[in-house]
Write a structure and sequence with these properties.
Length: 116
């Protein structure tokens, strides 16, 4: 998985992509015709200080790493963290983040469930 780093690319996904929302994240996704999945993560200063924002970024990256091949290839995905993520208790935080992201990806049909 590659990352989205340029503001221009984020804005394209925001404007042309489909979106799904829950209490913890807003997820935007659009096909990229490149065969690879690109991921961008945005965590505003409103969510918390630098340490908190980086922890959230690491949780999201780890969740995607563990999903691995289950995520459909060929999409640009932007994840925007909402303020509620920082309020999650440390115990079980990763499980909540992972479940939340999986549900958003499933809503947009971007996850292979393994069912034939």
């Amino acid at each position: 998985m590659e990352t989205i780093k340029k503001t221009k690319n984020f804005k394209i996904v925001y404007s042309k992509g489909r979106q799904a929302v829950n209490a913890y994240f807003v997820l935007y996704a659009m096909p990229n015709n490149k065969g690879a999945t690109h991921i961008g993560i945005t965590v505003s200063k409103k969510v918390g200080n630098a340490v908190t924002r980086n922890k959230i970024r690491r949780l999201v990256k780890e969740s995607f790493r563990l999903m691995g091949a289950r995520v459909v290839h060929g999409y640009d995905i932007v994840i925007v963290a909402r303020r509620a993520v920082s309020a999650l208790p440390k115990e079980g935080r990763f499980r909540k983040v992972d479940k939340s992201l999986t549900s958003l990806l499933t809503r947009l049909n971007l996850v292979n469930t393994g069912e034939n």
